[in-house]
Every structure is written in C-alpha cells, then in structure tokens.
What we know:
By secondary structure, the chain is of the alpha/beta class. The protein has helices at residues 42-49, 72-76, 95-105, 110-123, 139-151, 169-184, 196-202, 220-224, 227-232, 239-246, 256-265, and strands at 4-14, 17-27, 32-35, 57-62, 65-66, 79-82, 157-161, 188-192, 205-210, 213-219.
Amino acid sequence: MSKIEIKNLSFSYIENEPILENINLVIDERSTAIVGQNGAGKTTFVKLLKGLLKPDEGDILLNDVSIKSMTVAKLAKRIGLVFQNPNDQIFKNKVIDEVMFGPLNIGMTKEDAIRNSKKALEMVGLSSKIDNNPYDLGLSERKLITIASVLAMNTDVVIFDEPTIAQDFSGKELIKSIIRQLKDEGKIVLTIIHDMDFVAETFERTVVFAKGNVLLDCDTRDVFSKGEILKKAYLEEPNVTKLCRALGYDETFLTVNEFVEFRKNNHL
C-alpha cells in the first residue's frame, strides 16, 4: 500500500508571502478530499506533490523516498494528475491518441498502452468515441477523456482536480464509482474540490485548508459536524447536512439515503 508523508512543508511564490506554512500530513489508503476557499493553497499543494513545484522548506516522501530525488518524468510513473480544465491537458486530434500519450510517455509498450487506454475509455463510458476529435465533444466528455488519460497510466497515486466540473448526475455517479474502484485496487486517491455534496458522498477523509494551513483533518463525517470551524474556512456543509440541521437533528447526515434510512429505522 502506497503512502505519502508531508513533513514541515512550506512554499511561497513571493518571499515573505507564504502560500503554505508548515504542512504535516500523511496521505494513506483512505480516499481523501482537500477542500478550502480559493487561495487556501490547495492547487499549490497538489503541484508540490506532483513535483511541478519545489518546496521552500520540508519534504514530501512517497513510500519513504523523498520526491526531491525524483525527476518529474520519474514521478509521472507514480503520480497521475487530472487537470481541472481539460482544455489545458488535451492536445491530440483523436481520443485514443490522447489517452495513449501518457502511457507511452512513461515507457509503456504500445500494446500495453492500447490495452490500458481502451480499458480506461470503457471505464469512463467513451469506448464509442475512440476515433473522435476530443474538441468535437462537449466539456463534460473532455473531462472524462482527461480522467481516462490518467487511468491508462496505472499510477500508484491518482489526483483529481475538480473532477465534477461540467458533470451531470450520471457523470458524477460514474466518477464516484471510478474513485471507489481505484481505492479498492489499493491506489491513493486524492482530490481538490469545491463540491461539498460530492465530498460527503464519496470521500472517507477530508482535509480543510485555510490561509495556507491545515484547519481540519478528520473522517469526512467529523469534518462536516464542525459547522462553526467550517465557517472560518468560508465553507458550507453539504446540502442534506444543512437541511437536517435546520430541521433540528443533531446527527450529521452526509447523504439523502442516510437520512431516509434513519427515518425508517426510527419510525418517524
């Protein structure tokens, strides 16, 4: 099982204006959401994990090995990142070529790259679009192409940046099932996201960033039980959690189904 240790991590783009200050975390087998308002340091944190930025202080260990000793190319074999905006990631004229680019770029054989890419496209429901130009497809499908591109690389760590962008209910359910499948395969799954409902429904652990620091790091239910602390990070609770609070319930409900089952079991 892979593990990422973040030790005393600090980073700034401008001297004396820290973006992240003394971050200490262990990212383990639990699916983990990183949340916080814009400017909290989430994207910078992910870029540091991916090796796209170098920390001013501290270290990041992947399975006890400092990523400082790894090139970006070597890290690409271990850590996959799905960009927030698919238009920043897609550049090929065929869906299959786009999805195969990552696997080929990390040294996978053509045969393995084709097999993995077709499997990934099946996972995201785009097998029938294999020969399409990605830019002939809508934004939601382009987002799924970028997800397939990372899945095909078969990395130990998969990071999603705002995975639910442009997705309807069925798209979100599909991505949710992919995240759970990756976790079941023993991969580290991490996301930065603003969709609190999706966090509540999908992730076991939630880390709240605020002003470059970790404000909360708990099981997701525990995080959303701390409404007053969330307000300090300018975050809202999931919709069902807010509704049940307004109705006077003390319990923290994360999904509609949870609340329905509670009502059934208590004959209310």
